[in-house]
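Lab meeting, action items carried over

1. Structure of the four-component assembly. Owner: GW. Status: complete.
Input record:
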Amino acid sequence: MNIELGLNKKVRRAYGIDEIALVPGKRTLDYDLTDPSWLIGDFKRDVPIVASAMDSVVDVNTAVELTKLGALGVINMEGIQTRYKNPDDVLNQIASVGKNDFVPLMQKIYSEPVKEELILQRINEIKEMGGIAAFSGTPQAALKFKETLNNSNIDLFFLQGTVVSTEHLGVEGKETLNIKELCQSMKVPVVAGNCVTYEVAKLLMKAGVAGLMVGIGPGAACTSRGVLGIGIPQATAIADCSLARDDYFKESGRYIPIIGDGGIVTGGDICKCLACGADAVMIGSPIAKSSNAPGKGFHWGMATPSPILPRGTRIEVGSTGSLERIIKGPALLDDGTHNLLGAIRTSMSTLGAKNIKEMQEVEIVIAPSLLTEGKVYQKAQQLGMGK
Amino acid sequence: MNIELGLNKKVRRAYGIDEIALVPGKRTLDYDLTDPSWLIGDFKRDVPIVASAMDSVVDVNTAVELTKLGALGVINMEGIQTRYKNPDDVLNQIASVGKNDFVPLMQKIYSEPVKEELILQRINEIKEMGGIAAFSGTPQAALKFKETLNNSNIDLFFLQGTVVSTEHLGVEGKETLNIKELCQSMKVPVVAGNCVTYEVAKLLMKAGVAGLMVGIGPGAACTSRGVLGIGIPQATAIADCSLARDDYFKESGRYIPIIGDGGIVTGGDICKCLACGADAVMIGSPIAKSSNAPGKGFHWGMATPSPILPRGTRIEVGSTGSLERIIKGPALLDDGTHNLLGAIRTSMSTLGAKNIKEMQEVEIVIAPSLLTEGKVYQKAQQLGMGK
Amino acid sequence: MNIELGLNKKVRRAYGIDEIALVPGKRTLDYDLTDPSWLIGDFKRDVPIVASAMDSVVDVNTAVELTKLGALGVINMEGIQTRYKNPDDVLNQIASVGKNDFVPLMQKIYSEPVKEELILQRINEIKEMGGIAAFSGTPQAALKFKETLNNSNIDLFFLQGTVVSTEHLGVEGKETLNIKELCQSMKVPVVAGNCVTYEVAKLLMKAGVAGLMVGIGPGAACTSRGVLGIGIPQATAIADCSLARDDYFKESGRYIPIIGDGGIVTGGDICKCLACGADAVMIGSPIAKSSNAPGKGFHWGMATPSPILPRGTRIEVGSTGSLERIIKGPALLDDGTHNLLGAIRTSMSTLGAKNIKEMQEVEIVIAPSLLTEGKVYQKAQQLGMGK
Amino acid sequence: MNIELGLNKKVRRAYGIDEIALVPGKRTLDYDLTDPSWLIGDFKRDVPIVASAMDSVVDVNTAVELTKLGALGVINMEGIQTRYKNPDDVLNQIASVGKNDFVPLMQKIYSEPVKEELILQRINEIKEMGGIAAFSGTPQAALKFKETLNNSNIDLFFLQGTVVSTEHLGVEGKETLNIKELCQSMKVPVVAGNCVTYEVAKLLMKAGVAGLMVGIGPGAACTSRGVLGIGIPQATAIADCSLARDDYFKESGRYIPIIGDGGIVTGGDICKCLACGADAVMIGSPIAKSSNAPGKGFHWGMATPSPILPRGTRIEVGSTGSLERIIKGPALLDDGTHNLLGAIRTSMSTLGAKNIKEMQEVEIVIAPSLLTEGKVYQKAQQLGMGK
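Predicted assembly:
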């Protein structure tokens, strides 16, 4: 709070992941000595990547494949998969609509009700194929479908809104979600978000969440920051919430993983989030680029279908390779979007970090020129880091 | 004054609204619990938006519609509406002229004299249709037409120049406006501006103004900042003037609303201005985009017609929807330019602010990467926040 | 020296004119009360503008017209005007050569020797037409042509190199210019530059110069900063040198005007230079845009013709109006490039500055968003401030 | 460590070479008095430029010519020259492949094994033509080919990896390079890198290296910073490592030259690196632009051929002149890419620096606007500094 915005306000400076760089220390490591595994609930995952609960990113097949690759995929419980028995037609419509007609189409598609039986069906399909059944819902959906979920084979529940808080003031007479009660009454761990501050992170941990999604509005297809003016750039948000995790761990003995969510395009972005303190990241657009993604080369924000205030758009991300190539390589692209696990482990080996905990402690510098210094040709020719 | 510009100058850093972000606190609210209403003079308005006194933005019909939507529209007393009995031809000329011929055309159009009877006619037309009759004039026009206005049905007068001060040194023998006398002798409240500093804001409040417009040169079609080098970015300007309002309120018991004027393109921009301390905003280009705006898809700065030193240009803003859709939604666009009231209230609900006063107290961070972090695709494809 | 560049270096931050803004104070003035006149040698000039000693900017006719408009124009004593009896052919060649062949053409054109008789002829032509005969030369040319100039009708001599110093170490046996001796032995005042620091400015003043040009490398067509890595952004350079002027004035009673030279595109840029402490500005590209300029719509840097290391390029500036319109208006453009005097005086009136001395004392803020805040349409449509 | 990235992290700000500028002092020098020579091992070089060990930059012929021009060229011991007896076909393939097929082609080309006899052949070819035989290898190659090199006519060995450290933790049972042992057992001086911090630089010097390459990821064709998130902008990296050199010199009496490597496009960039503390620079793309370069107008990063995680791309740099013209001029381009030695010496003369040591002590300022101030036309027209 050391900057004077104006005579009436002292404020902080917050940093984005494009403004920082990681600094090699005096030790380096062999690639094979790095271990980026992490724990969410009781699930140990070898890859610190969670695919976002977005309709362009995760469906039943990709959720299963992500599980097998050592990562995790979350299905949007209020998305196309649970509104439509046969989602493919709808996904094709979205992939082929013109950019001016996109918002009204989305508003129409998402006006179809979510169906309880489809939620159960999708959970069962994943379980039958050997996947981890992780589903996300908004606070309203959590209230509505809690019993359904408790009677299902679900493994993990992600309570996800643009912003969540433990203290939501509702209109009198209308039921409001109590996150503490939800955590106690759900039979599976509840991962919650999104939040960006130490205080809210700590309150959510005290309420019993099993993981925390950090990030408001940085998503590639999200426009919330423009529409609402709200958010904190990711480097600072993750750093602040990570301290809440560490403090809470000291107080309680419970270690709640921090999942940096949004604004991540390359392997380098993931590494920076881990170094800021995240235990894993949640990514949408990098996974939507896989040839098996339900978005068919497109990706869209989950606040887009709002009937009154859409806060997301549709971007074209293309299909650049298989999901396996994107997660585990080998890479055929030089821009950090293939072999994300290889990028994480190579970065760890270069930085001398054996595991995520050591990665969280590497030196960071503020370095806005990291991505532009010397890159005039790449930028002019839209290659590599200049794409 | 802690930065050394050079050996002879210590200066401050001033911030623009693109450099800040709003931070959610520990409380969130239901949308229905938010109340963004405010008071100007004795008029309570449900929408904290004033449409600019610009010829591309407000005419009689839009002024009336804005009143009915809970907002406010101001008519330029020295504009096309009061120079021409039938302004439509002139507006069509402006909308169809090539960009190289624009300035001379404007200089010609605005050389036609302002007519007292048209001022009175426009006031009466608004009143007959149930609108609030708010008109703006420069200091020179205020001197010239004060009696006319005092004998009319006008509701609010906006005294507006690029920069106003309570201490204007005039050439000897030439009458100079005394703002204090004007406020005392006008039968309606006088809202004045523009200013950007604590000191001038305080002096104008002491002179008796009923509202203050804050902002020099940020307007979408304005070029004053380039031509004159003058201005303070809006976040700091609003913050400084808001402290003047609070201090003056403590001293006098009079609460003078601060109206952030200029530089506002999206709902997020409005929310940021409120969080910096504004009670409402004055916007031009976002309203000029309505299908009923007099600008017919174009928007131009009010210092453009100057016969010797034009300081505004004409921009094409398009026609994206009805005035109602822009103010109250539902939005069909995902970029924060439809449903501005919805954006304000959603932001307030997310930030836990019940009313404008609480909105003025939300946490702000300096966050230049807020609008770019993760948005590479939107920028490359000119979608959403990348438009 | 409060910033750590690295462990071995403490450095300062220097600011450019695009990073600052001027802040209106509590007083405003009528336009007619502003007086931007200044004194160079014994010449009082009503317009604080000097046209650069560049071949695209000043020839005999424009020098005379600038004198009559109240400004000043300097002729390059080692340029096309003094190498060629009939420069028009050469100027046409430059205006029509392709961009890849420009440098070799320049190297060839400037290999023609400077002719003493043409120097004298140009001086006489100006004097006969009633102009002020101001000529510039490098240190080498000053050595070579000093006697010629002392036997001519010259009014002012500008000693101008990319960088000048009072302590130049030469190769043994080779004559080196002593600026103090030059100032004493020239019959006319010597204006010198360029420099950017307090220390050098003070030493040059002590050596007897009658004016100081401040700025290294910001010129529109100059590439020295890229080729050599040298320079200080103009706001800081002018501020530092202005303090040297004030300190020297206190010590000696001699007031040496500071001329901000380079990096100036608009009226706003000029106003910012004056507010940083300049008494006048030297401008090239804005004058090269006049329909009577010798550059015929083009402008080039004076270090371009170097046979071994060109440090300037040729830019197309177009011809946008008469010299009178550019200096005194009325403006037909809205981007601050017409009516520069009007812009200066309007800015002074808005800022409450009666004269240059008061203009040098107006409040400045660091405001990088001054020129971008709210200007998305102008930038996208390349209009006004977005050109 | 004075900036709060977040509540859990205090960090430093690091600066890139585009963010700084060099400040002329009170003395200037004749060009002929400047001496930019330096010493690497026992080789005195008149030009402080080393051409990068990249396949697009140095082959036998260019290595020899660089020696004769007073500079130095390093051959990549694991590149095309040592994998293929007749490299020309392969180089033509690289120059003609489409950008989407580039990575797989590179992966294929570099899967051909390195041949011991070709290493020896290239060394002998250089020696026979009178050149300095400088070869680079990764730590793995150093282990593998150490004996071969010790039995050859090599002059200098460059141990080069993206990041090297003196403390590399290897998988048990796998041999790991000990840099100290390597330096002791090699018959020629070992120059090592890259590194970016004081601590690692000091440790490498203590291990016995004869020179240090500083810079991680700034190279024109490198994408490591994007893929891994790692690096420190060059100005700070060079400044930090230079202090290590000075401290080590005080302790040991051995002076280890610092070679700024990467991110350098123009003469101005070289000058800035020297002023930050470098003794010389290693450059790739500026040399790849020579008409005799093996890249044939293209340039690519050396981490590109990685079979699992490519971290470099191919950029088109064109062929703009002979190697002699690029190093020693005369320049036919105005953008600082011809006559690099002339740029260094002109900058030294302007800054009053007689030799590299004095150049390392010139004043630097943080000046992000150095390269943009006043350059609107160059940028819009892609000329000079706007290319």
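2. GW to write a short summary for the group page. Key points so far: Chain D touches chain C through 72 residues (CB under 8 Å). The two ends of chain D are 36 Å apart (CA to CA).
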